[in-house]
Sequence to fold (344 residues):
Amino acid sequence: MSLMMKEIFEQPEALRRTIRGERAHAREFAALARKRKFRLIVLVARGTSDNAAQFGRYLFELTSGIPVSLAAPSVHTLYHATLDLRDALAIGISQSGEGTDINRVLTSMRRCGAYTLGITNEARSAMAEVVDEVFLERAGRQHSIAATKTYTGQLMVLYLLAAALSPRVELDSISEIPGHVAEALKLSQEIRELVERYRYMRQCAVVARGINYANAYELGLKLMETSYVVAERFSSADFLHGPIALIERDFPVLMFLSPGKAFRDLCRLAERLHRMRAETVVLTSAGARLPSTTRVIRVPGTMHEIYTPIPYIVPGQLFAAHLAAVKGLDPDKPRSLQLVTRTI
Fold:
């Protein structure tokens, strides 16, 4: 078993550890947030962590009503801009906590008046030294270069922070997520058989909308990292504004169709792609009624849309890991990559 696959299967317990370890901390942060009355949240990240930040943007805006911005690190590290960040919460996200640019941005934002918070898997990291407080995702040491358990760990911490900022995110519902992940892992053999069909896939599109939009980016990244597939990532709305011209017979499109606000629009797109003879793979719920599609991966269990992103990325992680294996590639040794990437 590859390190990547091993860490995929470690996720239920890693998520439970994160909840146990940071639940009380989130309650303490809720008291601070009420006192400080944040009017802006700025998320700072790179790579997989940037996909987690994209999820955080949707989650915080949907539940707390606080506007969220994704930071452009070069504004701080190359252009040295001075921003007015009073009443802002700046959240840095980094598995290792050693990203030079992320830590420089957090230092700059703190000087500009923001309250800074770090989400990392490493308690003794450089990030822990530059922020006001740290939330640990407690995923256990990451050995695989392709992040899986640390991505979902970051999402779990973002859920805990969202619960601290708004009653619309419920701790009881968050606590059910590890169980849904354990059920999703049971799809491994089914997905292993499915990916044989895509052994020679060289390009694809990954499409989602709303709360699962970040997962389109994360699945696309995993396909590029581990299987060297050129994976273009789109919101279903943006996909209709030009990129749909890419579609021809048998062009692969992977879609996240979780029940909820975006479901109807995504179903219409899936039906249109079917008529265009695209090769669609749809990740959806066990009970969802779908239009005609090529292949369907059904995630077990019933959950509110807002809690679907962690269970829904798991079949995507399995798809990428199994695809690398059938292509004869080692997902633990992606070319030109290393575990910690340092940029400024």
